[in-house]
Request: fold
Amino acid sequence: MQTPQLETERLILRPLALSDVPAIQRNFDNWNIIRHLAAVVPWPYPADGAETFVRMQLDKISAGEELHHWVLVLKGGAGEAIGNIHFRPYADGAKGNRGFWLAEPYWRRGLMTEAITAVNDFAFVTLGLDHFHVCNAATNQASRRVKQKTGAEFVGFIELAHHGGQTKSEKWIVRREAWLRDRT
Ligand SMILES: CC(C)(COP(=O)(O)OP(=O)(O)OC[C@H]1O[C@@H](n2cnc3c(N)ncnc32)[C@H](O)[C@@H]1OP(=O)(O)O)[C@@H](O)C(=O)NCCC(=O)NCCS
Reply:
């Protein structure tokens, strides 16, 4: 299914486009973001890091892979991408089906919780999924809180190397039944 534009009270979640490259490069090239991420992300972040990544994601989507990738845009703002959420609903969830980050100036305002609420609705109401998995570095308290606030149940720990040195990841499951029950 094509990725729809989603809307929340304060945000537009719009499908990733090549024109988002400069904003992603500017906002993502930040150790305070990267240190929480799996070590597969290149660091130091190359000057063409965002372009390489965006082209790779768009190629996968054009090739028919079930991959949904949104950029977060503030309503009433300049229209720039201030964050990303990618979601692979049918992929093997061993290391999680979803990833997200938000530009540091916008942290702690509830924005990612708001965005993930819309993505969970998409997953369970639009796609009709039964469940999916999500992960975060065991020391990533902000990501853990977003998960706790958006219906995730803790499953256990897996081994995963992160840039900040953390080798453990918390694994969670998000289930449709619980999501729909708690939304009403
Ligand atoms: C994770 C991230 C997307 C959260 O975005 P956000 O919009 O700030 O999240 P929200 O405001 O919706 O919720 C954050 C929650 O974490 C809490 N929090 C944030 N930093 C914290 C910290 N250092 N210690 C404890 N709690 C923290 C906030 O208080 C809030 O919880 P509350 O509503 O109960 O007070 C953002 O911090 C980020 O991009 N981090 C770097 C990249 C990353 O970690 N991505 C996820 C990889 S799994």
User: Anything to note?
Assistant: The longest helix spans residues 111-126. The chain has a mean pLDDT of 97. Strands lie at 6-7, 11-15, 68-74, 83-87, 98-102, 131-137, 152-159, 168-175. The domain at 6-183 is CATH 3.40.630.30 (Aminopeptidase).
